[in-house]
Design a protein that fits this description.
single chain, 648 residues, mainly alpha, 3 domains, four-stranded mixed beta sheet, 26 helices, 4 strands, 66% helix, globular, membrane
Length: 648
């Protein structure tokens, strides 16, 4: 499947559905106006006529202000992004140092998928009292995202299946679904406001009207009670249409999310297995939390037994067959029997089986596309016996194991804010002793001797890792870095800029580290200000495209001739038939490159697709995708707020 084409199709359909949502709001306004006319009709027509126009104007304005005001209030209450949504439905944060085996596995899986997808590790939440299999991702961008799973996911899914569910949610992060999901929550809240007001009026009038009927011969219902009932009806109509549109928006994106999950995990058995278990289990994917319908459109599966109109997801069999076209529904019966037999085992047997499954090769940590040296850090091959291995192979295996051990130590260190800060600085310091000494003095001046000492300890380990391990460590450290006070975050960014600039020749990997860290921390501080899809067309950014392609071509080639050839291929892909003149990349390319990436972030989605495809042309010019090229492409895609193409 062409992921970019599918994203464009989904975005186009979503715009139509949002327009229909606005039409539903207008229908509510019309219904309220009719109610106002009905209430006003108690007056004699010749007395009422002069007041009809101002009455309708007041009713219209009041209704629109009420809906938009409540929607704005709800969206504002979720201004902290994914964290606010997760806590709103009862999610409990998963501690970074948890010792619970299930939670550790959940955290490990999420970290692996984050590295595979080139995104920072999101906040992790658990719905502990939910036996159904479900999950959701929420936030305005990857920088403030949160992933929340139910206890049923941990109890019922094996590691592969959990990995498939998590990868599905990451695709929502990368495909830009989360911002729309939060806005839909706000609009639904605004529409429901009329119904809530109506119910309050009915409740308030119920006792008073009963009292009047017992003490007065006039048994007519008060007008306010009738208005309350009418508002409940109008609010229900609006909610009905809103639910239809909410469901349609969600369904249009689920197939894309399932397909993207396969891109990250490189297999279908995981996510397909999770869907099959939802189909056979009694709890399915249902939720019990009271406000489950408010988040139904962002869940992995349906939160209730909706009919076909209100279902927020395609039918389960349709989703399974999309992943496994050969699957037959009769096989669900066999799976149900196997699960019933398995449920009779003791809890200790289940834990033992899970441990064995985690050690199996099929559950090995993910490798991210284009990764070679760095992949050995996360998933080093099994070490053979010394007798069976040649000396060179044995040395390579021992080096890979050593790198893996170092990465493991650093991985645990970045789970807390202050060690994570020190490690980011350690990754940026030079390996030259004289320059490193100057950089450490600068760090001591900014943060104190304690941080300088920690940087020195981390620097020794960091020096043994391949450069391509820096971005994975940044991804893992990001949740802890977000916990730092904003002033300390700003000092970290300023110090990193100064430390990196002290080197006469800025290393590409240092640049990538600082660029991503700055972008993610700034967006996390102001989630609602995260960039949205731009409106620029490609010709307006020609110079920026040329510079970005030049950086990729130069750092992906061995000589000037190869770089020039790769750049010409990229430019021809972006601007077919246009005249192009190769210019040598300037030594001080970092600042212009930053400006170029910011400029390209304002492109419309279809133009961004062309840019990414052009970069792929440059990367593939020599037939090899190097780790440096893959790392640079991930930084560019993150800066453009779009998913990394599966071919990378």
């Amino acid at each position: 499947m062409d992921i970019f084409a599918e994203q464009a199709r989904v975005r186009g359909s979503t715009r139509v559905l949002v327009a229909l949502f606005i039409a539903a709001v207008l229908a509510i306004v019309f219904a309220v106006d009719m109610l106002a006319m009905l209430v006003f009709g108690h007056w004699h027509i010749h007395r009422a006529l002069p007041y009809v126009k101002p009455l309708l104007s007041i009713a219209t304005i009041a209704t629109v202000v009420l809906i938009l005001g409540c929607a704005w209030y709800r969206i504002a209450s979720l201004s902290e992004g994914g964290k606010a949504v997760a806590e709103d439905v009862g999610g409990e944060p998963v501690p970074p140092d948890t010792q619970d085996p299930q939670l550790r596995q959940l955290r490990n899986v999420i970290e692996e998928v984050a590295i595979a997808s080139g995104t920072p590790v999101p906040d992790i939440y658990l719905l502990p009292n939910e036996p159904g299999i479900n999950a959701f991702a929420a936030g305005y961008s990857a920088s403030d995202a949160a992933i929340c799973v139910t206890q049923g996911c941990l109890d019922q899914l094996n590691r592969n299946e959990l990995q498939g569910v998590i990868a599905h949610e990451f695709s929502h992060v990368l495909n830009g679904d989360m911002r729309l999901n939060i806005r839909l929550m706000g609009l639904l809240y605004g529409i429901m406001a009329l119904s809530v007001i109506g119910r309050q009026m009915v409740w308030w009038n119920s006792d008073s009207s009963s009292y009047r009927r017992n003490n007065d011969d006039d048994n007519r219902l008060p007008v306010s009670l009738l208005i309350g009932i009418a508002l409940v009806v109008i609010g229900s109509i609006g909610y009905f249409f809103g639910r239809l549109i909410q469901s349609a928006v969600a369904r249009s994106r689920e197939t894309l999310a399932d397909t993207s999950a396969v891109q990250f995990t490189r297999q279908t058995i995981g996510i397909a297995g999770a869907l099959k278990k939802i189909a056979v289990l009694t709890e399915g994917s249902r939720l019990q939390v009271g406000n489950r319908h408010e988040v139904a459109h962002m869940m992995f599966g349906d939160v209730d037994d909706f009919n076909a109109w209100f279902a927020t997801h395609p039918p389960l069999m349709e989703r399974i067959r999309h992943l496994e076209p050969w699957f037959k529904e009769q096989e669900l019966t066999k799976l149900e029997a196997q699960m019933q037999a398995s449920s009779s085992n003791s809890q200790s047997d289940e834990a033992g089986n899970a441990t064995e499954a985690d050690a199996d090769q099929s559950h090995a940590p993910l490798e991210w596309p284009g990764q070679t040296t760095g992949a050995a850090v996360l998933a080093a091959p099994a070490v053979t016996t010394p007798q069976a291995a040649a000396p060179v192979e044995q040395a390579a295996q021992q080096a890979a194991v050593a790198q893996r051990d170092v990465f493991g130590r650093l991985r645990e260190a970045v789970r807390q804010p202050e060690p994570a800060l020190a490690l980011m600085l350690a990754l940026a310091v030079s390996r030259q002793d004289d320059l490193q000494s100057k950089q450490k003095r600068l760090i001591a001046g900014a943060f104190g001797d304690d941080v300088q000492f920690s940087v020195g300890k981390f620097a020794a380990d960091a020096a043994t890792l391949p450069p391509t391990s820096r971005l994975p460590l940044l991804s893992l450290a990001y949740p802890a870095l977000k916990q730092l006070p904003q002033g300390r975050q700003q000092t970290l960014l300023e110090t990193l800029d100064t430390v990196v600039s002290m080197d006469p020749q800025v290393d590409l990997h240092d640049y990538c580290l600082v660029r991503l860290l700055r972008m993610h921390l700034r967006e996390a501080c102001r989630p609602r200000s995260a960039p949205v899809d731009g409106q620029k067309k490609l010709p307006a950014c020609r110079d920026s495209v040329a510079l970005v392609c030049a950086v990729v071509a130069v750092y992906g080639s061995n000589d000037d001739a190869a770089a020039r050839r790769a750049w010409l291929l990229a430019i021809d892909q972006a601007f077919p038939g246009a005249a192009a003149s190769w210019q040598t990349l300037p030594i001080e390319w970092q600042v212009p490159f930053d400006r170029a990436l910011d400029d390209l972030d304002g492109l419309m989605p279809t133009a961004k697709e062309i840019v990414i495809q052009s970069l792929l042309s440059a990367i593939r010019a020599d037939g090899v995708v190097t780790p440096t090229e893959a790392e640079l492409l991930r930084v560019i895609c993150a800066s453009l707020h779009c998913a990394v193409p599966p071919q990378a």
